[in-house]
Write a structure and sequence with these properties.
alpha/beta, single chain, 19% strand, 28 helices, 715 residues
């Protein structure tokens, strides 16, 4: 039990809640039994006999019961024979519950539950048995649901005496909060979730247990915010006529209202003497990088350094390229032809040559480089800064709390932190996963951005639609533009085996692995795009080769790039207007939205075609229809969350959150989460050390220990 279900203590067991409840069903007459349904019948045993088979090794008990309207056979096998054999003597009246099946053209119940009725047991006893809710627990092969139920029953003791068995439990909810919110006590909630009399009992129990989860989590986050606010940081106010002013002066466009507003929030945070912790959510293409760059320039103006962390090398190189382009001669500080108030912008990734890496490290430690852009290589011990003032993290969902802490230790004082994400995060998830960050949202698209038309291409139902898709790509190229074709897989052996392991039911139905970059590129070159310049880009290429392909694509020397999702974030080629996503149903909603944001980045309109073999009416098609129908990332992320399990959403973002949520659903329980956040903030503000709440402290330590343990496992 301990290993397979991670249940080590009585408390763990009691907090292992039933997944759902089976009802034994209405009382049914034997003559009216429906097939394949769970029924409860009251009948008398007519006869019972044991048969042996397998040369006497196997035993089967057959019992015939009657209720005056008809007869029914019950069968029990193996060890299950003993109890019914002694209790179900002819003439005994009992209740039987089970699923009706057919064997040899006769209806039967195999291994039904039963309860014998004494002479005095009347209609109430029968009614109570029939209507009892049976808890079904999340189980595993080694531990069936009924065995878990037996263990829980042992702990809870006889009915009516549960409260005494549960008296010593740690209750994290302060009494005043529980009473103020009208919530059940913890013993009552646990009794009702494991032994509900009615459906109302289950609801009462879940309401209370959701609060426990939301509240302990929000207290943990509130304490983290409180601790962060106590840290000292150097205020960073940009110099009046410095780098930022020079940069703004050379911008060929004006900032959007949203960019200006968010920039003000950021600069206000940077001017304070405790570290900024801000999450910047921005739609694909809303100009987050511009906002982040201005913040970095402001910090350099104030004498500090800024670091930008990207999840992949391709992205780090891309950010480096676009930032040095935006800054022009301002990025050539100290070099010939560089502007006098300029600074040096260096790139630091794992695959750099030794000499280039040494130079970059030197520029950082001397303070020569004001801005560094890199991957997680920046967190390594060897990397020393002259005076790190701001860290910008791109795509937080690939960057956990632990890495943030590692980077924080690089500054003389903790640096300010700005986290950017292009995945719109619904408010509840922001409160749960990023609860220790303040949030800013950029929801306006910059001027000069073109609309993107999205369409679903049902390749199996309508093959001519796919042919037309390739024609559209050719038309875009003929008009002087470029296109992407995205596939779920690279297409080599290692990938094959992984794909085979991860087959879902829908994949099984198709019996084919997802399309691969290598194969699709070959087919396109031989077929529909034979006269175009087609190149391949995927994660297993050498960094230099990847860079070279991206450079040539950006320079317009490649017409169509066939790629995996390495292009998902940050690739910026304004001349690319068409995107065809193969096997689009294999991607998540947010991912499709991200990918689509790679086209329409210039003056010409964008086109995104979602190719799928999924039949009409399937959930996968509905999901693609939703992506084609709206460009609102927040709306899409809600759809995405409803269709996926919480675990994927919380993902790696916060190690301990996922494992600690059992009844709380991040999407549906917005009110509970918001209310718990308020209560938690008030308690932590009044009593940061929680001295007055010993039980809450214990629950909190248990949650954080679990998080820490998971982090160590990962490390």
């Amino acid at each position: 039990m301990a290993d397979h279900l991670d249940l080590h203590t009585v408390g763990d067991l009691l907090h292992h809640y039933p997944r759902r409840y089976a009802e034994r069903g209405e009382l049914t007459r034997l003559s009216d039994l429906p097939l394949d349904e769970h029924v409860t019948v009251v009948a008398q045993v007519a006869d019972a006999r044991v048969h042996t088979f397998n040369g006497g090794r196997g035993r089967r008990l057959e019992v015939t019961i009657t209720d005056g309207s008809g007869r029914l056979q019950l069968v029990f096998f193996g060890k299950g024979v003993h109890k019914p054999r002694t209790e179900l003597q002819p003439g005994t009246r009992a209740m039987f519950a089970g699923k009706v099946s057919v064997f040899n053209r006769k209806r039967q119940l195999a291994h039904p539950e039963f309860k014998t009725l004494g002479a005095g047991s009347g209609a109430e006893a029968v009614e109570a048995f029939a209507n009892q809710l049976l808890p079904l627990y999340p189980a595993c092969k080694q531990m069936e649901s009924w065995q878990i139920q037996q263990a829980v029953d042992t702990v809870l003791g006889p009915a009516g005496h549960e409260e005494s068995a549960l008296a010593g439990l740690i209750d994290p909810l302060p009494e005043s909060l529980r009473e103020g919110r009208g919530l059940a006590t913890l013993p009552e909630a646990l009794r009702k979730i494991h032994r509900p009399g009615t459906k109302a009992d289950i609801a009462t129990a879940r309401d209370r247990l959701k609060w426990d989860e939301a509240f302990v989590l929000q207290v943990a986050l509130a304490r983290r915010r409180q601790a962060d606010a106590q840290l000292p940081a150097a205020p960073r106010k940009p110099a009046p006529d410095g780098l930022l002013t020079a940069f703004d002066a050379r911008l060929p466009f004006t900032l959007t209202e949203g960019q200006r507003k968010v920039s003000e929030e950021i600069f206000a945070d940077l001017a304070t003497d405790h570290p900024m912790h801000r999450l910047l959510q921005g739609e694909v293409g809303s100009g987050k990088t511009m906002v982040a760059l201005r913040a970095m320039l402001g910090v350099v103006d104030a004498g500090g350094q800024a670091a930008m962390l990207a999840p992949t090398e391709v992205l780090a190189q891309q950010h480096h390229r676009s930032i040095t382009e935006m800054m022009g001669e301002l990025a050539e500080g100290g070099m010939l032809g560089g502007a006098e108030q300029g600074t040096k912008v260096v790139l630091l990734t794992g695959s750099m040559g030794a000499a280039a890496r040494r130079q970059a490290l030197l520029d950082l430690v001397t303070g020569e480089a004001g801005i560094v852009i890199g991957t997680h290589a920046l967190i390594e011990d060897k990397v020393q800064f002259h005076d790190l003032g701001l860290v910008v993290v791109d795509e937080q969902h690939r960057f956990g709390v632990e890495q943030r802490d590692a980077l924080r230790s690089k500054g003389k004082q903790p640096p300010h932190l700005l986290v950017m994400t292009a995945t719109p995060i619904p408010r509840t998830v922001a409160m749960t996963v990023f609860g220790d960050l303040e949030t800013s949202v950029l929801d306006q698209l910059p001027s000069g951005r073109s609309p993107i038309a999205s369409h679903v291409v049902p390749a199996k139902d309508k093959p001519h639609f796919l042919a037309r898709a390739w024609e559209r790509v050719r038309e875009e190229v003929a008009a002087g533009h470029q296109g992407y074709v995205v596939c779920p897989r690279i297409g080599d052996e290692e990938d094959e085996s992984k794909a085979a392991k991860e087959k879902s039911a829908e994949d099984e139905a198709e019996k084919r692995p997802p399309l691969a970059v290598v194969d699709v590129a070959e087919q396109l070159v031989k077929g529909p795009l034979s006269d175009l310049r087609v190149e391949v880009l995927h994660g297993r290429m050498q960094p230099e080769a990847k860079d070279e392909v991206m450079r040539r694509f950006a320079a317009g020397e490649v017409d169509v790039l066939v790629a995996t999702t390495v292009i998902e974030v940050g690739v910026n080629v304004p001349n690319a207007t068409a995107m065809v996503i193969m096997d689009a149903d294999r991607f998540g909603v947010s991912q499709l939205h991200q990918l689509r944001g790679r086209v329409g980045r210039g003056a010409a309109a964008g086109l995104c075609l979602l190719v799928t073999d999924m039949p009409e009416g399937s959930p996968a098609r509905a999901r693609l229809g939703a992506v084609a129908a709206t460009f609102d990332g927040f709306e899409l992320s809600r759809i995405d969350l409803e269709q996926r399990r919480e675990g994927d959403v919380l993902g790696q973002a916060q190690s301990g959150v996922r494992s600690s949520l059992r009844v709380l659903a991040v999407i549906d329980d917005e009110e509970v989460i918001a209310a718990a956040r308020e209560e938690a903030a008030a308690i932590v503000a009044a009593d940061p050390e929680l001295t007055g709440y010993p039980q809450l402290r214990t629950a909190l330590d248990a949650l954080l220990d679990k998080e820490r343990a998971e982090f160590l496992d990962k490390g």
